[in-house]
Amino acid sequence: MSVLFQRLTPLLVSQKAFLFNFCKMLNPLFFMTLILITPWCQSEKPNVLIFVVDDLGYGDLGPFGNATLPTPNLDKLASQGIKLTHHIAGASVCTPSRAALLTGRYPVRYGMTPSYLNRVILFAASSAGLPPSEITFASIAKKAGYRTGLVGKWHVGLSCSSISDHCHHPNSHGFDYFYGTPMTNVKDSGEDGYSVVTSNFPNFKKLIITGICIGASIGWGFWFFLRYRKTGISISVIALMLFGGTWLFVNSLVRLNLFLMRNGELIEQPIYLPTLTDRIVQESINFIKQSSAVVNSDQHQPFLLMVTFLKVHSAHFPSKRFLGQSKHGKFGDCVMEVDYSVGRIMETLKQEKLLNNTFVYLTSDNGGHIEEVNIHGQPDGGYNGIFPGGKGHGAVEGGIRIPGIISWPSQLPEGVSYNHPTSQMDLLPTLIDLMNTTYPAEDDRELDGDSWTPWLTKANPEEYFQSRIMFHYCGVYLHGVRFAQDPSTIYKIYYYTPNYTKPAEKKCKFVCQCFGKHVIAHNPPIIYNIAIDPKEESPLPHNQSLIDYVDQQVALHQSTLDPNVESQFSLSNSIWKPWMQPCCNPPFCSCKETVENNVNDFV
């Protein structure tokens, strides 16, 4: 029996448990009676509902201090459960953080961290992704008898070597049902002409035009002056194909990457974003209702549903219902829409009489993107509260300190906070306890999360504190370590910090990088006590004994890493491969989903 049920048993002695024990004491003549009532006597495994919001900052929600952006449904969710106020993402960008959440393991263990610029999967038609050998909480739940589903964003890969092998697909990682996109939306999806490429390389258009002009000029020179006509034509054609092809490819990325799938079938390309959130909600509601029929049938099969919103990542597409409703532009409108969406799904749980037997967890994949601006130069990303930095900033607090809410009415305390460090990687070992199952024992792979069950049911969870170490990677580079010694002493040790282009604002040009000239090395490391200095404004004096201890822990941790692990971000895995490009109705790659769900709630 799991740790959680061991703790719940003395607190929640039910009629079922009493009858089961009574039956065991009866004469064997009553054995058939025991057989008949055993399913009723056994403790039911809880359903699991997981919400992940994209790029939501710590300070974007009312429960975490935002007084200017109404989030009534999330306020209610927090009031009915536990706020995780010191909750940490597995990385400061989405692909590795999602991998960490799914596996309970640092992404560096299985190659989901790069050694160079790019830290997320760029192309659906690449070989990068969560290795098939990794074990997710969905695959564990499936083996434990759960019906599993994922609705929304995935962004940890699609296929390995062919268009249809789908080795990285959610269906290959324990999810029985998938409705969503393997990738994500980007600024290029918007209607204002803004682009991720031009955000990183503002002179991209000029480079393309200049390249075509130079190539054409050289070709003309060979043709007209040197009389090498074939050479001149070849040079001009090569320049046009090279630079024009690059321009065409960049402008086709939305169509190539932003497509919708139901399980292995491509059903829409590109995605019509204004109604996508409602479709995600409707699919989630349908999954819950279908699961409810199974839960309440003779099978008593519980479900695990993961709902991963594409909001509030840019480009922002609030529906008509929410457009212009917030004080924070389209970003705020999208936060309000997510809040409303969570409320609708939670209401479905209530209507289906599943609320009291469903463990709910809500979080973000990383901190708010503070460098994000709209076409007018106005802030268009999340707010990280008092914490410095943001998405992509390595170990800096604003990029990895994220909101976390747990709710399980009738089982967990309500309206309390757990202020000690927790990690998204804790979810997997916690679910193992909740599901009364075990981690597969066929190998000795390291798990990096700690189960929450020792404090989860306490009336005052703050009474429980456990010393722990967390390692904060930026790509493959260890940028910092968090050492929670006691509730009033939580050290943050920095080996590297971003070399900000705007130091006063602690901002990079668009996305911070992890190495070389992009970072500042600290030797000796910088030390903060973030328990009393969460803004990281007052470095502590050098403490060699502390540094020696942390260095020992780093060495122990890194001794468990496989130096020969295949990098999912190698050039061969990362590049776009045309033969792996999903495309409906080729060569146009254009199709629309036949939507049977009612979208009137949003439009």
Textual characterization of the structure:
With 603 residues, the chain is an alpha/beta fold. The chain folds into three domains: 34 residues, no CATH class; 432 residues, Alkaline Phosphatase, subunit A; 56 residues. Helix content is 31%, strand content 16%. It has 17 helices and 15 strands. Strands 1, 2, 3, 4, 5, 6, 7, 8, 9, 10 and 11 form an eleven-stranded mixed beta sheet that branches. Strands 12-13-14-15 form a four-stranded antiparallel beta sheet, with helices on one face. Strand 12 and strand 13 form a beta hairpin. The radius of gyration is 26 Å and the shape is globular.
Compact summary:
With 603 residues, the chain is of the alpha/beta class. It contains 17 helices and 15 strands. Strand 12 (468-474) and strand 13 (477-486) form a beta hairpin.
